[in-house]
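Q: How do we represent a protein-ligand complex in a form that can be generated token by token?
A: Start from the inputs.
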Amino acid sequence: MYWNQHYECMPREQLEKIQLERLKNIVERVYHEVPFYRRKLQEIGLEPTEIKTLEDLSKIPFTTKQDLRDNYPFGMFAASMSDVVRVHASSGTTGKLTVVGYTRSDLNTWSEVMARALTCGGTTKNSVVQIAYGYGLFTGGFGFHYGAERIGATVIPISGGNTKRQLMIMKDFGTTVLACTPSYAIHLAEVLESMGEDRAELKLQYGIFGAEPWSEGMRQELEKRLQISAVDIYGLSEVIGPGVACECQEKKGMHLFEDHFIPEIIDPLTGERLPYGEKGELVITTLSKEALPILRYRTRDITVLTKEPCACGRTHVRMHKVMGRTDDMLVIRGVNVFPSQVEAVILEAGGTEPHYLLIVDRKGSMDELEVQVEVSPEMFSDQVRGLEDLERKIRCQLESLLGLAAKVKLVEPHSLPRSEGKIQRVIDRRKI
Ligand code: DLL
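Then emit the structure tokens for the protein with DLL bound:
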């Protein structure tokens, strides 16, 4: 099922023509409207008219989060404030807010790509969509809201938190689609189980989860515990919010809506463009944004792009699940570690819960990684022997996967913090 079959299934040749047309327009526009871009292009002596093919995109310098911060709050906007009808912002963990703006036409584009994404995830006009992403400056709540309304589904704009009330509403209002972060979905599943509620009383069919990395193991866990089909959705404020890419029911990567965004993969160290199929940092250029067009934005997200056709019939490239962020990557004794790799090992081990925490510390000149993992209640009441075996199993698998010895600490069920939005899985004491 498609929301916009014409664009989503367009032959690539035709799609690339549209991309080139739009790319030329956007470069022309930012050159004239955004002093930051004019300066950057003048510095390298590039005239907008020199963009003649899609390959010419690689001549354009990157834009980074720091550029947005340096131009805080509205300095990168290409539209006048009287045409900006909305702002959102992402807080990040350090520094100032990153502020993004939308014209009326941008809100329209956002609703369009979110309607496509939600349709990919199984939403129809008959769905009842519970939006448990936060509403506010975060783009999650509003992005889903406008997309679901565009489809004509029934929207429950409940926002994050108040878990028992979420579950009561899910049951009483007959929610069929749950939209929230995967970590919050696991928490909802856990509270549902602890309340002794009968899953059969819920009408839930689909979950559309994103805003943070999650592994295939976490998908299986969520699908089993909530008895739903769970798809991954990707996006970031700087580009539009949620709705940049979303999985279809094939669940083999997220279709990235290429008539609005051009993706590239680069080597994060050299900035060099990598071919399809290679792992690297995702870079995105927006093609239709008015208030905040952005050229070659370095997302810091690590993924792989594939052009292989998808069984669903969509022709847009797919991006693999995000493996982590370049700034989330821990370097421990010279070894690169992403929390999502640890998650995969933990969930495969069995006898564990999908709750874990990575603690990195420095003892003398040595970095140490401790992985705290919650065990399942059955495992917890098992013999000490069983726990020792599980600890050893996780330790060995981490060592063979990462090539790094980590300390594994099994902890009681429900002892690690839960999240209602994006979860923090790493404590790096080396930086404190
Ligand atoms: O998180 C937008 C969003 C809301 C996406 C709801 C999906 C669902 P920001 O707060 O600007 O925007 O954070 C963007 O979150 O660069 C990724 O590192 C991470 N991220 C978003 N989606 C995924 C995902 C929203 N599906 C940053 N898998 C991005 C992994 C994700 N990481």
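Residues 12-33 form the longest helix (22 residues). The first strand starts at residue 84 and ends at 90.
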